[in-house]
Amino acid sequence: MHYIPNTKDIEKEILQAIGVDKFEDLIKNIPDKFLQKCRIKLPESLSELETTKKIGKMAGQNLDTDSMVSFLGGGSYDHFIPAAVDFLIGRSEFYTAYTPYQPEVAQGTLQSIYEYQSMICHLMDMDVANASMYDGATALAEAAIMAVNKTRRNKVLVSELINANSRKVLETYLQTKDIEIQYLPESAGVTDLRKLDALLDDQTAALLIQSPNFFGNIEDLNGIAEKLHANKSLLILSVNPVALALLKTPGELDADIAVAEGQTLGIHQSFGGPYLGIFAAKKDLIRNMPGRIVGETVDIDGKRGYVLVLQTREQHIRREKATSNICTNQGLMALAATIYLALIGKAGLKQVAKLSLSNAHYLADKIGSLPNFSMAFEKTPFFNEFVIETPVPAEIIVKAALEEQFFAGVDLGKFNEKWKNRLLIAVTEKRSQQEMDDFINFLSKF
Fold first, then answer.
1. How far does the chain reach from its first CA to its final CA, in angstroms?
2. In this predicted structure, which of 196-205, 301-310, 320-329, 379-388 has the lowest mean pLDDT?
3. Quick check: helix, strand or coil at residue 330?
4. For 285-408, where are the alpha helices, taking DSSP H only?
5. Which of 85, 87, 360, 437 has the most C-beta neighbours closer than 10 Å?
6. How far apart are CA 266 and CA 436, in angstroms?
7. Do the beta carbons of residue 222 and residue 150 sit within 8 Å?
């Protein structure tokens, strides 16, 4: 199949119109030593049928959670997704919809976003939520910038135990701005909040902390918001949406801004994306929020309708007054989360959380009893994710597990050399006791 629409005759006609004999004449001014580096030895061309077979065979080499038992975590989790989620978001009126600038022709999209915002406010126990952001990492970074803009201070305190990838995104976002990052160290698998008093000053805009944290452990945040507010600083809390069915919500902890990675709410892991950035806040911060917000109104006939409101983005106001450079939202992923939450309901989400919690503790107890393994943080409470100390580098276990049809977990040595003998294991409601027992038998060989 010829993928360039121009035939040889058309190409010849174009070159004649330009005034050259062959394509190479157009690039003769480029020294040959540079052209040599650009020349690629391509194989012989294939037909469409041959290409489809070849690409299909290559794609078949990918490993996924349909054929493997997954204990992967670290920000992306193998939860069950009802078939209705994919069916509904695949409908053309949703799948092909883009930014709903014209409310008169985008009521369905606007309504779904409004319902998403409402569900997120209820889940987080916060006053307002935006229409979503790119992912949890960018939501966290935008929250830091929002706090700086609101308080007019230039320092943020950050827990060392926020997601390692989110931390890199945060540092990337803030490196071009006059914002100082100070990290609170880890102690026994949680953030050492005893250091907070010494770091708080009149330039502290906010504390950014995650619970459950990167190790899966639950942070004790009681009284932290009160201490920050006394210093006129904000509390930014990053959470696992599923865990909120059992743990205290950001609202109950008096957080000012709450963010999350929404992948756990009906979104496939998909080799890393697209995902969903959840962003919610207290009502008095609404005009500082990034992104867009959908509001409910009535039309000239008194019928309910939906419109975009409070679009404090550089597309709509002077750039220096914009709250963010985020100019769109993850509409399809937000719709998937909305459908997922509507399908399983409040009781269903709590059941998912309880099963994930009980499965994780069952597996942790069994692994902790193996002679060569131990829990890295035995006395620290965790939700559905935990860290084990391994007798050999975790990388070896991860590779060996692939031969036994397991994704064994996340090798923490990738993030820090001193963690090379640590494996981060996540367990969801999908894991059966047989799968967990088989995994324990596999680990017992080390």
1. 52
2. 320-329
3. coil
4. 331-368, 394-403
5. 360
6. 23
7. no
Is 238 within 8 Å of 156 (Cβ atoms)?
no
- Is the per-residue pLDDT at 43 higher than 80? yes
Beta bridge partners of 375: 388
Return the structure tokens found at 309. 């409101």
The tokens for 442 are 């596999």
Per-residue pLDDT tens digits for 56-72? 999 999 988 988 999 99
**What is the torsional sign of CA 185, 190, 196, 198?**
negative
User: Using an 8 Å Cβ cutoff, are 98 and 336 in contact?
Assistant: no
Q: Which CATH entry fits the domain spanning 69-79+346-443: 3.90.1150.10, 3.30.1490.20, 3.40.190.150, 3.10.20.70?
A: 3.90.1150.10
Beta-strand runs (E) in 121-162: 128-129, 155-159
Kindly provide the residue ranges of all beta strands, DSSP E only, lying in 138-203, ordered along the sequence.
Answer: 155-159, 180-184, 186-187, 190-191
Q: Domain 83-339 adopts which CATH fold?
A: Aspartate Aminotransferase; domain 2 (3.40.640)
Among candidates 272, 264, 437, 293, which has minimal Cα distance to 365? 437
**Structure tokens of 65?**
């959670």
Tokens linked to 13: 């006609």
Do 380 and 190 contact (CB within 8 A), yes or no? yes
- Give just the sign of the alpha carbon dihedral 427, 433, 439, 443: positive
Tokens of 433: 């006791």
Do 333 and 409 contact (CB within 8 A), yes or no? no
In angstroms, the CA 243 to CA 257 distance is 17
For 100-109, 114-123, 315-324, 406-415, which range has the lowest pLDDT when averaged over its residues? 315-324
Closest of 339, 348, 363, 126 to residue 245, by C-alpha? 348
- Percent of the chain beyond pLDDT 70? 95
Contact call for residues 188 and 380 (beta carbons, < 8 A) = yes
